[in-house]
Design the sequence.
């Protein structure tokens, strides 16, 4: 199956700092999503980005499908950005959505 | 639109019992997937249902089963609970299931503790 690696596993930053989270995957995919898991366990959709670049406020993401990696950028970090960030990939077949394979996540801690 | 809802939110069971978890997808969504999250194994895919049919299944024993109803609501059942089944169980729904822009939206999860 597809392997997904995320780095770094842990990241501690001061409020206001910028960060880059990386996701490498082992095979071609046509579904890639970034999620933020809050302290209560809820997975919040950040981006659906199988290729290209998207931006949403202080967050942006880039996926280079041909090189099998995706990057999540967080600028001007706030304490509310703390939590675990997951990258998940999958293949959408003609039959519909296949399973998502998740990486092990990056735990981000923003210090005031 | 209301999001994905899961009930119950918390559950405590003892070994050997069985449990049923429920998931209501976003209105209009037809695909429902289930995932298990544990500290040791991370997030793992259990199964996916579309139009009351299981389309995809992960590597879990037969004690884990599910079903989907005609209104797209889904239930998963775990029989003969083991301590290792303690986990956060997450349900996700996606839209048409036809393969176009299939963002998955997750519910808040059910935390199951097996004693």
Sequence:
């Amino acid at each position: 199956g597809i392997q997904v690696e995320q780095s770094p596993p842990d990241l501690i930053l001061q409020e206001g700092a910028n960060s880059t989270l990386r996701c490498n995957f082992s095979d071609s995919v046509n579904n890639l999503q970034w999620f933020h898991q809050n302290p209560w366990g809820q997975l919040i959709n950040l981006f659906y980005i199988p290729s290209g670049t998207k931006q949403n406020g202080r967050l942006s993401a880039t996926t280079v499908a041909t090189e099998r990696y995706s990057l999540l950028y967080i600028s001007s970090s706030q304490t509310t950005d703390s939590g675990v960030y997951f990258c998940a990939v999958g293949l959408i077949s003609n039959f519909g959505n296949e399973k998502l394979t998740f990486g092990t996540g990056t735990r981000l801690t923003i210090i005031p | 639109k209301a999001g994905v809802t899961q009930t119950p939110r918390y559950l405590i069971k003892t070994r050997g019992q069985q449990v049923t978890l429920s998931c209501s997808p976003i209105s209009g969504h037809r695909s429902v997937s289930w995932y298990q999250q544990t500290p040791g194994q991370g997030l793992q895919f259990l199964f996916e249902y579309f139009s009351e049919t299981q389309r995809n299944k992960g590597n879990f024993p037969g004690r884990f089963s599910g079903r989907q109803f005609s209104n797209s609501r889904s239930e998963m059942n775990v029989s003969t609970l083991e301590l290792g089944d303690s986990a956060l169980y997450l349900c996700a729904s996606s839209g048409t299931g036809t393969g176009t822009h299939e963002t998955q939206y997750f519910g808040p999860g059910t935390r199951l503790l097996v004693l």
Notes: Chain A touches chain B at residues 31, 33, 35, 40-45, 48, 86, 88, 92-102, 104-105 (CB under 8 Å). The mean pLDDT of chain A is 93. The first strand of chain A starts at residue 4 and ends at 7.
